Amino acid sequence: MGMRRSLTGIRARMELRQLAYFVAVAEARHFGRAARGLRIAPPSLSQQIRVLERDLGVVLLHRDARDVRLTPAGAALLSHARALLARAEAARCDVRSAQPGVARIGLRVAPGAQAVVGPALCALAAMDPEVMVSVAVCPDADAAHAVRQGRAAAAVVWDGGAAGSRTAAVAVADGLAYAELARVPVTAVLSPGHPLAAGSHVSAPALGDAVVLLPERDLAPALWDGVVARLGLPNDLLCTIADPAGDGAGAVLRGVATGRGVAVLPEPMVAPELLVGDGPAVVALPLDPPLDVGLHLLWRDPVQPALRRVLEALRPG
Q: Which 3 state secondary structure label does DSSP give 130?
């Protein structure tokens, strides 16, 4: 009852900006990473989250030296915050599209990548109202094809290789330009009762004795062709999880939570709603030795001015 009263009694002065900050931290699970994406100082971000918690009268995030986790109240707010921000963005797009001179850029984003590039796109929307970015989430291969066929201006895709070899091959074959946006750590995802979940990390050889759950290959080629190969996981212990909803990691995480096996996923693919308070549905631990994957941007030259502004907002440095 207390949390319900708090949520229904949200003060009018709570800003969409604060909700956007909260969502960024919840998805990044780290104040520093979220602050870099939002392009603000970490202390300012932390202060805004504490103001939001004070206004709601609840604790939204558990903070420790390693990461940030949602409390039950934070998990409840996250879905509401996303819905409110989506409605605000839809209203903003409707208003902008009614005015002449607004450039519309179609962007295809692979599952999980929106957690990395979303803050940069929000910052771009605030800085440049003459550019409207329409984002659609789709598998890597579909994203690249959309750019090649002119159905999208750019795409953000995963690459499981150590040096972007798959992205380079796709770009060369399709006549596209590409750039690496980020290197993202791969985490081992386990149910809380799994023996490997008791440690602070998971050794790669230990995964050789576990059933490893994976999305269907066409939904996550970077995992199959890159991560699995680099870890040397045996084929007889790989289990493909059918996913009618097409969200890739979602079905895998539900399988992990019910004890069907373990998973190895890029960190942003681990839904923060499943890492809640003192009773997580899954546990995400770093690999030892560490393993990361690339997040790459694909586009077609020549670049028009509006697309150039989007590329500059997404590319580091």
A: coil
